[in-house]
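TICKET #2291
ISSUE: user wants both folds in one file
ATTACHMENT 1:
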Amino acid sequence: MPLQQIIIFVGVFIAVFSAVALLLSLGSKPKGASKAPDAAYGLGLNARAEVKATPNAPSANDRKTKQEKSADLQKTEVFSSVPWINDKLQDLELGSRLRMLMFQADISWTPGIFILSSTLMFVASWVLLSLTVNSAWLQVGLAAIIGLMPLCLVLLKRSRRFSKFEAGLPEALDLVVSALRAGHSLNAALGLIARECLPPISNEFQICFAEQNYGLELNEALDNLLMRMPLQDLRIAVTAILIQKETGGNLAEVLNKTTEVIRERFRLRRQVKVHTAHGRMSAIVVTVLPIVLLGVLTMMNPKQESVLWTTPMGLHLCAISAGMAVVGALIIQVIVRIEV
């Protein structure tokens, strides 16, 4: 049996297996999986809610039982419906990191679904490319690019959610300032943000508000908020709150000054984005123009352009051109990326 047929057979088998496992993961909800994302990140809200709901002081045995239940909550965290994939993801830190990435992007995937989707796209595209492309390196390279598309989607949605959070943060802090000046506590002001603001601001501060109601310290709740939303503007606001808690002072005035700093940073970032628009457009042109030109020339004269992917010299030229285009785009990105 030729080597190409063996590769196709193995690829089809892996693709079918990944597709079946993906359908099983989508179709069934694993037993013991947490319904809220906060339980998946070790926040233990359900365990704390159970402890708070007990009217009388628990005995030593009751406390031990509840501690075991809280530990079981962490141990039964499910990353995939497929048992062996779930075991592997629990042994590694990859499962927790992927789950955090999914939560930050507001996508209801499990790490198992994400890995199976990427594997399925990689193998299926590799099998299809092996029927039309002779170079094994080009097959693997293009298949890897297609297999990374789920990751690109997650990162894009995560970036958009972060941008939306940053845009609404000054208004949320203004609401906190108004609530503090009206005589409310900081915890009540955080609950006001959770009720009055729009997602993702309301979702994140709702978790922070619930954590404090269940007995978590303010600094730990804010640290969890920073873990879920690692943004510099939010870090400035959290640092101001924690410093005021240690040193005292007028928190409303501190947050008011912090809001002014955040708005000024936001305005400066917009100004930098305007001044670097030409460079970013140049990077897009450098990356996209060769691909578009290749497609147009292929439609005009397919026989002549097919030399690029049917001969060794053409494949080398394609690889060199792609590498130079990527390096040029990266250099332009380094030039136009200015940290504020």
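ATTACHMENT 2:
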Amino acid sequence: MSLIVLLAVLLFAASGRSEPLLQLALITADLDEPVGVVSDPGDPNRLYLLERPGRVRLVDGGLAPDPVLDIRSDVVADGLEQGLLGIVLHPMFEQNRRVFLYWTDRSAHMVLAEFQASPDGTRIAGESRRDILVIDDPNPYHNGGQLLFGPDGYLYVGIGDGGLLPDGWRDGRDPASLLGKILRLDVDHESPGLAYAVPPDNPFIDVAGARPEVWSVGLRNPWRFSIDPHTDSLRIADVGQLKWEEVDRLARTEAAGANFGWNLYEGRQCFERPSCDPSGATFPLLVYSHDYGNCAVVGGFVYHGPVGRLDGQYLLGDYCSGRIWTVAADERRMVLQLDTALLITSFGEAADGSGYLTAQGGELYQVVGSE
């Protein structure tokens, strides 16, 4: 699709590999702080890109000069973790042209809203905005933002803990709060007084005082998560506080009501306390430290695209160090594939399984094979 950019490669000595499983091919470097990418379900080569200041861009044989949508007047992006943070197209996008976006607004809220795209998909009508959920944002940090439709047709939404060091409100483990959670919403129906319906099998629906939208608890900042359609397994990359980054993995249905531990635990360690009660906590699949320039995990997805050598490998990276790893199915060992100078912000999976990566400097890359 574009010039293949060969990046500096550093492999774990333990891996025994003489070359990486992947490389990155540059598509464009003309974006403004891209933080997300999704593809048209009916055309995997048509990509919708999020720019953190508040624009949606289109790549379809090249970067379209005009934005598909510009809501910069509604978005606050002063802090590094604020802005237009999430996008997903409805599974029936080819028929209904429904688009869902998530951002931090100028009135200290986190907003999930629905928009309508044009029949040809080249425009999203700003005036079609319909707010689905508006959450008070107590602090500029830890806003989450991942949006994903599951195989059950419900929308999964990642919400950060509100950002006060370190989860001072203890919202993460409290099912009465929407902060520090993954939510599960039925956006194809509405309950009285709501712009959505609550799925009847959500785990807290009959718990007194709990928010029925909650699916999983105990998260700090689930910046990116994914569901592997081949195994229906959920992988959550939860950004750590002081020492540890983590990736949680459960079968999607087992994640109903799961408590991932924050702020009792950071990774697998008690957080700023001599001891803690592990009962009820779900510990991460893998952790890595803030050594060697690491600072914030960026979760990807289990690859099932055209690069055969990557099939079944989970991709992830780190925002600060620029490292990209793979994790084989059912393993806990991270294998370093590329050591880049990129400020990695997100991975994206196209309808045909192809992988993409965005970087803060304005770049969009495609994941390609190393052969």
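RESOLUTION: both attachments delivered.
EXTRA DETAIL ON ATTACHMENT 2: The longest helix spans residues 93-96.
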